[in-house]
């Protein structure tokens, strides 16, 4: 495509010509978060439920999903005039669900970390 066609296509977008690059970054953050979740689950299988590495990976994934969801909500609210209201509402609901998953991962990470501490103290007591 020529630069004129690209300019016309992204004219209404918030970021203009940078929109495809911003989308690539958002997809990369999502893939990184999913990769960390997968590695955390893999750590459960290899090292048992209460391990520090799994806890850190879930914590990292939670923060990445929080970042992605808050960023998505802000972008949707800034671009409200460009899309139909029902699509904006469904996008915001999706991002709120992603926010809840991120908060859940952070809580799950904290439970695993505290369980690891209790398990270590229990092993030292015996």
Describe this structure in words.
This protein has 126 residues and is mainly alpha-helical. The chain contains four helices and no strands. Helix 3 (52-78) packs antiparallel against helix 4 (85-125). It is elongated and about 70 Å long. The protein starts with a helix and ends with a helix.
Estimate the mean pLDDT confidence.
85
* Shape descriptor: elongated
Question: Which structural class do you get from the secondary structure elements?
Answer: mainly alpha
Number of beta strands: 0
Q: List low-pLDDT spans.
A: none
The helix count comes to 4
Which characteristics define this entry?
single chain, 126 residues, mainly alpha, 4 helices, 0% strand, elongated
What are the SSEs and their pairings?
Layout: H1 3-9, H2 19-47, H3 52-78, H4 85-125
Helix pairs in contact: 2-3, 3-4
Short description:
This protein has 126 residues and is an all-alpha fold. It contains four helices and no strands.
